[in-house]
Amino acid sequence: MLDYLQFVLTPQIVTGLALGVAVILVALGLTIIFGLLDVINMSHGEFYALGAFIALALGQVGLPFWALLFAVPILMLPIGYLVERGLIQRVFHSKDRHITTLLLTFGFALVLEDALRLVFGPNPYKPETPIRGAVEVLGTYLPLYRLFMVAIGGLVIVGTALIVYRTRLGAMVRAAAFDRNMAASLGVPVERVYAGAFAFGVALAGLAGVLLAPIYSVFPTMGRDFILLAFTVIIVGGMGSIGGAVIAGLFLTQVQAISSLYISPVWADPIVFGIMVIMLVVRPQGLRGGLGHA
Amino acid sequence: MRDAITLQTRAGHWLVALLVLGGLVFAVVGFATGDTFYLRLATEALIFGGLALSVDILLGYTGLLSLGQALYFGLGAYVSALALIAWQSFWAAIGASLAAALVCGLAGGLIANRVRGVYFALITFGMAQVLAKAVYNTRALGASDGLIGVPVLDINLGLFSVSSASPVGFFLFVLAVTVLFYVLAAYLLDTPFGRLLIALKANENRVLFIGYRTSTLRLGSYLVAAVIATLSGALYPMLRGFASPELLFFSTSGNAVITVILGGVGTLVGALYGSVLLTIVKSVVGSWTEHHLIVIGLIFMAVVVLLPKGLMGLVQPALVSVLGRGSRR
């Protein structure tokens, strides 16, 4: 029993935790963008892939891994800002904003994915793990890189929550999410806040791409599988809720990790999705309220 | 009394007649030149047009964006392939697909219609994705290879029979079936049920206050779309001789959405023209470069921003005004 805990369960939980943190980073971006702009960003998975590819390209130029952790999100910021100002703002005031923006970002996802294939080719790249080795904790060997992912991801998640809930900037974001017109008349530059939030969400997805690149390979369609999990997380957590995304992200990835000990891992996705269906039937609004209401 | 919606529907009928005429000319030319490739491609375009039609019933009339209509298309393809392998009978395949469509459409509709708007889009996306993964990992269904070895069959239509191996014969057959789907959808949307769906799209609360059960209406719309998508999918293995998991993937659902947007949302006929147009764009661009998704993505984004009514938005208003003048006289 103790052996089982030591050699099977604990490593699996840590693996699930590392994945969970990355999923939360992606889901946080999605949920902030939805909570503030009411936009479902269908190209979010491709931004995640873009982050991984930028990391790959910069890594080949010779940038060390720790520098990538800063460089990639910073490079993603202007890209996200321009996409929001150049594309999403164009249809933001149309009648069916939900559907129109969803379609537009879907089209952008097609273009971005094919552009990545054009530049980097369809084959997967496997970057080297930047931090090798494992550490022994109470007789259990845990890979260092996964622990590092949990630490960095955790820091960014806590930092994001602090920015949103404890700073003046965050108050402006929440005010704009609660009532756009009221916030605008109080002097909040709503359009810049929107574009900034979109850029921030996209940068988080890029950071997740950097962190996960050494674990999964890097390939143009890498965003597709990942994005379903991220959507499930924000639906279960409540669209637009940061706390909900964290809880749901940790919970669902643990369900995935632990269930795959007992059944074939390919069935982990249907189980996670089953939870989402039950959640939608029982509590369609998700675990927690949105960005403007917390 | 002809209102705007009736006139628009009439305009749609004329455009479908034009499409049929074009199809007949195409069939004659194809037959005369002994072509197989282009006739097969056009047949595929029509089959995917049926799928797009089902997306338009949901998006254009009921206001529900389905990102997982491939679920039903793939369901039809797999059920039909299994039935064809077992019984070699067209009607058995169609019967089995119809039964599957009703059962799964009801189940999926009850789940998906718990929610609206973007949640609906995401849950349909998720349902299709899960079925695709399940099929992809089931060895009994051929896993990633799909179901192969669907036999060539003779479709017995009472007076005569059509072989699925004949390019011209099967093209004409699929053309007839697709037009039948169009007629069925156009008829249903012209009934009071259809008008209620349009009202639902405009304002669901008001329909509710008038005293209609909007949940039943939405379920009905979902079921009709599911049946049309499934039956379209059932034709696919007859054309290509296999059913592959790709038919269930998001790319199939996404293509159907692109088709409807290109052709024109809420016109029905736009779905059929859109499918033909998309197939032409894909094969033309595909002959220059394998990166046709960039081009299609850019065209799609341009249409979303600049031409919200799609291709039909350019054609239909003129036709409507001609028909309208006729009715006033």
Fold and architecture overview:
The complex is a heterodimer of chains A (294) and B (329). With 294 residues, chain A is mainly alpha-helical. Chain A has helices spanning 2-37, 44-61, 65-91, 97-120, 144-166, 168-178, 180-185, 190-212, 222-237, 242-262, 268-282; strands at residues 134-137, 140-143. Chain A has a two-stranded antiparallel sheet with strand order 1-2. The longest helix of chain A has 36 residues, at 2-37. In chain A, 47% of the residues are buried. In chain B, 77% of the residues lie in helices and 3% in strands. Chain B has helices spanning 4-32, 37-62, 70-87, 90-112, 117-136, 167-190, 192-202, 204-210, 214-240, 250-263, 269-288, 292-306, 310-328, and strands at residues 147-148, 154-156, 161-163, 242-243. Chain B has a two-stranded antiparallel ribbon. In chain B, helix 1 crosses helix 13. The two termini of chain B are 13 Å apart. Classes of the chains: A mainly alpha (294), B mainly alpha (329). Chain A binds chain B through residues 34, 40, 87, 90-91, 94, 96, 98-100, 102-104, 106-111, 113-115, 117-118, 224, 228, 231-232, 235, 239, 264, 266-267, 269-270, 273, 276-277, 280-281, 284, and chain B through 59, 63, 65, 111, 114-115, 117-119, 121-123, 125-127, 129-130, 133-134, 137, 250, 254, 257-258, 261, 291-294, 296-298, 300-301, 304-305, 308.
Proportion of residues in β-strands of chain B: under 5%
Mean pLDDT of chain B: 89
CATH topology of chain B: ABC transporter involved in vitamin B12 uptake, BtuC
Assembly of the depicted chains: heterodimer
- The helix-and-strand class of chain B reads mainly alpha
Rg of chain A to the nearest angstrom?
19 Å
Distance between the termini of chain A: 43 Å
DSSP helix fraction of chain A: over 70%
Task: Enumerate the strands of the largest sheet of chain B in spatial order, edge to edge or round the barrel.
Answer: 1-4
Q: Residue ranges of chain A: pLDDT <50 for 5 or more in a row?
A: none
Give the biggest sheet of chain B: 2 strands, antiparallel
- What does the overall shape of chain B look like? globular
The CATH class of chain B is Mainly Alpha
Q: Which of globular, elongated, flat, extended, rod-shaped describes the shape of chain A?
A: globular
Helicity level of chain B: over 70%
Q: Can you list the strand order of the major beta sheet of chain A?
A: 1-2
CATH topology of chain A: ABC transporter involved in vitamin B12 uptake, BtuC
